[in-house]
Amino acid sequence: MSERWVTLAALAALLALPLWALAADEPFTITLATRAAILALAATGLNIALGTGGLVSLGHAAFFGIGGYAMGILASHAQTFAPLSLGPWEVPGTQSMPVIWLVAIAASALAALAIGALSLRTAGVYFIMITLAFGQMFFYFATSWRAYGGEDGLSIWVRNGFPGLNTLVPIQFFGLCFAVLLLAMLLHGRLIRAPFGLALDAARQAPARVLAVGLSPYRLQLAAFVLSGAITGLAGALYADLNRFVSPAMLSWQMSGELIVLVILGGVGRLAGPLIGAGLFVALEHWLGGATEYWHAWLGAILLAIVLFARGGIVGLLTGQGDRRG
Question: Where are the transmembrane segments (predicted)?
């Protein structure tokens, strides 16, 4: 089976599950599918940096959490009718999803630009550790930010709105998240085949040769890192809207680790890798989590088997191809 057909099959399965749940009157199953779509979106953002750019980041939860807090702060001010003070300016809160998404993307992209500009001056394990350090800085800042809940987090009373939709209806909110995921996957697919994506892949494999032809590996990787952070931040805003709650846990290193696990399970650098990895993760969490609190042990065993025997992830197994990333 080709990777294209695997991608289409994975998208069809994700779409069919909530439609079946709607017919069977199982709203919780729709919520699980929505969670899988949002986590797949976050992992798609990471896959741009990790799979295409070869940047192993343990700080992507910072962008995920920034997107979540952008939603939480704007929505909380809209609900209390108290304007948000930005120095000499006062900005009203909002519960409009398109506006919140723009703010989440902009804030996450700016954070990724600052973090990437410093982190990309290092490489290897040093890059991993400095991204982890930045992620923990944001985590402890959110923990001590008492104006927005501190370590207890921030609750939102009503889900934000999108023009023409009732986002409180589970199937409609799923459709919105699925559409955003589809757009992100299309962007990633075009990016891989575009000149920028080819140059980024070359910078991962042979940076000296890329430099020799007049391109800057640093700028290519920084642009990929910023795009990756922006998409992950958008996923964070959707995730906070799904739960109507945002907390420092969204910024923790465990969240960064989970996103990497999703990419590895599905296949690093594979277009459908984040989607399949997120689907498997949510399914294991739901089915095994209800049977035992040690369900992570089974996840660890599956991850170990993939790392040892299926370097291309689940997509690699389905397509019969090895690890394209070496």
Answer: 33-51, 58-78, 98-118, 125-148, 168-187, 222-240, 260-284, 296-318
Q: In degrees rounded to 5, what are phi and psi of residue 266? A: -75, -40
Q: What is the DSSP letter of 82?
A: P
Residue 12 within a domain: no
CB 90 within 8 A of CB 309: no
Distance CA 267, CA 248 (A): 28
Question: Residue 251 above 70 pLDDT?
Answer: yes
Look up tokens 């575009």; give the residue: 194
**129 in a structural domain:** yes
Q: Which domain holds residue 144?
A: 26-252
Q: Tell me: the pLDDT tens digits for 139-186?
A: 999 999 998 999 999 999 889 999 999 999 999 999 999 999 999 999
Alpha carbon separation from 254 to 59, 250, 259, 325 (Å, rounded): 10, 9, 9, 25
Q: How far apart are CA 113 and CA 101, in angstroms?
A: 18
The number of folded domains in the chain is 1
User: What residues contact 183, with CB distance under 8 A and at least 6 apart?
Assistant: none
In a domain, 207, yes or no: yes
Tell whether 122 is covered by a domain.
yes
DSSP one-letter code for 221: H
